[in-house]
Specification:
The complex is a heterodimer of chains A (251) and B (277).
Chain A lengths: L2 E11 L2 E12 L3 E5 L6 H8 L7 E6 L2 E2 L2 E4 L2 E4 L2 H8 L2 E4 L11 H11 L5 H14 L15 H13 L5 E5 L7 H16 L3 E6 L2 H7 L2 E6 L2 E7 H6 L4 H9 L1
Parallel strand pairs in A: 3-10, 3-11, 8-9, 9-10
Antiparallel strand pairs in A: 1-2, 1-4, 4-5, 6-7, 11-12
Chain B lengths: L12 H23 L5 H8 L2 H33 L3 H16 L2 H9 L7 E6 L3 E7 H4 L2 H26 L3 H10 L3 H31 L11 H12 L2 H34 L3
Antiparallel strand pairs in B: 1-2
Helix pairs in contact in B: 2-11, 3-4, 3-7, 3-10, 4-7, 5-7, 7-9, 8-9, 9-11, 10-11
The chains are: A alpha/beta (251), B mainly alpha (277).
The complex binds adenosine-5'-triphosphate and magnesium ion.
The site of magnesium ion has 4 residues of chain A, from helix 1.
Protein name (chain B): Glutamate/aspartate import permease protein GltK
Subunit structure (chain B): The complex is composed of two ATP-binding proteins (GltL), two transmembrane proteins (GltJ and GltK) and a solute-binding protein (GltI).
GO molecular function (chain B): transmembrane transporter activity
């Protein structure tokens, strides 16, 4: 099937279970919001999806292809560094701290991966980058250094840097963590635009208003487990699980 | 009428006093240097470009070059071993740095110079084929190669620490972001980590090269004819000890200044690259 499929996914760190039998399906073109308290394993789950963190069991498929491993018989053999790197070009990730490269200008941050990894033509990539920068209102900052931008602007550069790779899925870790309320709404609008362009997305947040604004499906996580999963409207109005209800009430 | 009041900065009495004292000291020092005939400046100038000294200078420069040329790659390997997952690689690297940073350069030099006492012959032996080739250790480890070996091994220990500090100055988030974009490990290093680590590594590496240059002077104790030993050879004949030590010092000053200028130039170019395109 097309989209992102996660099944039976577990991860332990020094004996402590961080992710516990995660099952999640994000059909192609849809948005999944991962909601949950701090320490519930949301960031770890995102990092496992593109194999930045290893898993102990389970399997992830992106548009049918297993991520990070090759199946031979009943065994999964980890792919080589180069093969995993290739797969990661198909998965866009935006980090909570943005992690822009401070030694490169905004434009260079955006074009470095398509130039060096996808070996695209410099002129084409720059044109594409400027178009994308314009859609997030930053075309005049193309030659600035990341350190001269505000947090919200850096965030949008990080999104453009991931989008220019034309990924099959986008992963966002707490995209609103450092934004003031006004910017939260504009970030929600930007992500909804992406969703209207049929981008498959997994968005981690613990901000309810933001999650509501995004629509799509919501998965509620606690202690490394997905304890409730459903359409945004249902989950917010009729939470099935008592912990979900508590979380919705407190926030 | 506040707008035509005159502003008088406060007097920095301590700084003024210090300036007067230091000026007096400098004047006294200069006076003694140029009036004391025993400095024998004419001998200094006469020997500054003496052929033996220039040959010695060349040896000093060669030693520095070889120490840096082999020491930096070896240091890089040691730094990489320290970052490896294998406990053995980590421990060997740690042990190496511990030993070679702890034992003074002079002791290491004597050690390598006398290694023949420990291993009288060096042999190239392949399993199944037996000894292919062997030669007396003293033929390979002459004064010069013993000195190069000591300097390289010593330099590598310091260099590995410099490189390790540089690599650690790049936050892990940078590596994560680069990997998430699809860079391979070497791509992450080449495009993202090294350019950032370089800013930390470069000034320290510059200092390291300068201290290697000065460290080469210890080779005079094994009668290797570097610039210091050449000066000593001359003053043992002529008894012009001080003038010839001044000559040697002036040459160290000249080379160090040239190295510093090179360092500033490279750093300047790097910081220009900091500016947006
Ligand atoms: N490298 C690690 N070593 C040990 N424990 C870790 C490591 N990484 C994550 N953890 C633990 O895993 C759990 C989940 O962490 P994770 O960062 O995924 O949570 P989160 O849901 O993203 O929380 P937050 O909302 O605070 O970002 C935490 O208890 C954390 O302490
Ligand atoms: Mg997190």
């Amino acid at each position: 099937m097309s989209g992102l499929e996660i099944s039976g996914f577990s991860r332990k760190i020094s004996g402590k279970t961080i992710l516990d039998n995660i099952n999640l399906i994000v059909p192609s073109g849809q948005t999944c919001v991962l909601l949950g308290p701090s320490g519930s394993g949301k960031s770890t789950l995102l990092r496992c999806i593109n194999h930045l963190d290893r898993i102990d069991s389970g399997i992830i498929r992106l548009n049918g292809e297993i991520i990070g491993y090759r199946q031979t018989g009943d065994k999964l053999y980890e792919l080589s560094g180069g093969e995993i790197a290739r797969q990661r070009t198909r998965i866009g990730m935006v980090f909570q701290q943005y992690n822009l490269f401070p030694h490169l200008s905004v434009l260079e941050n955006i074009i470095i991966a398509p130039l060096k990894i996808l070996k695209k033509k410099r002129g084409d990539v720059i044109d594409q980058a400027l178009v994308l920068l314009k859609t997030v209102g930053l075309e005049s900052h193309a030659h600035a250094l990341p350190s001269s931008l505000s947090g919200g602007q850096q965030q949008r550069v990080a999104i453009v840097r991931a989008l220019i790779m034309q990924p099959e899925v986008m992963l966002f870790d707490e995209p609103t963590a450092a934004l003031d309320p006004e910017l939260v709404q504009s970030m929600a609008r930007l992500l909804k635009q992406l969703s209207e362009q049929a981008m498959t997305m997994v968005i981690v947040t613990h901000e309810l208003s933001f999650a509501r604004a995004l629509q799509g499906n919501v998965a509620f996580m606690e202690n490394g487990r997905i304890i409730e999963h459903g359409p945004s409207h249902d989950l917010f109005t009729h939470p099935q699980h008592v912990r979900t209800a508590d979380f919705l009430r407190q926030s | 009428m506040s707008h035509n009041l005159v502003i008088v900065p406060k007097t920095k009495i301590a700084e003024r006093l210090a300036t007067i004292v230091v000026a007096a000291c400098v004047a006294a020092l200069l006076y003694s240097i140029f009036k004391n005939p025993r400095f024998e400046w004419q001998i200094v100038f006469a020997n500054f470009t003496a052929p033996a000294l220039l040959k010695g200078l060349l040896v000093t420069l060669e030693l520095t070059f070889f120490a840096v040329f082999f020491g930096f790659p070896l240091g890089t390997v040691l730094a990489a071993m320290r970052q490896a997952d294998s406990r053995l690689l980590q421990s060997v690297s740690w042990f190496y740095v511990w030993v070679f940073r702890s034992v003074p350069m002079l002791v290491q030099l004597f050690f390598w110079f006398n290694i023949a006492a420990l291993y009288p012959r060096l042999a190239l032996t392949l399993p199944g084929l037996g000894e292919l080739y062997s030669f007396p250790t003293n033929h390979v480890l002459t004064g010069f190669s013993a000195a190069v070996l000591a300097l390289v091994l010593h330099d590598a220990a310091y260099t590995s620490e410099i490189i390790r500090t540089g690599l650690r100055s790049v936050p892990t988030g940078q590596r994560d972001a680069a990997r998430a974009l699809g860079f391979t490990n070497s791509g992450v290093m080449y495009n993202i980590v090294f350019p950032q680590a370089f800013r930390v590594i470069l000034p320290a590496a510059g200092n390291q090269i300068i201290s290697t240059l000065k460290a080469t002077s210890v080779v005079s104790v094994i009668a290797l004819q570097d610039v210091l030993y050449s000066a000593q050879e001359i003053y043992e004949r002529t008894y012009d000890v001080i003038p010839l030590l001044i000559v040697a010092s002036l040459w160290y000053l000249v080379v160090t200044s040239l190295l510093s200028m090179g360092q500033y130039w490279v750093e300047g170019r790097l910081s220009r690259k900091d500016q947006p395109l």
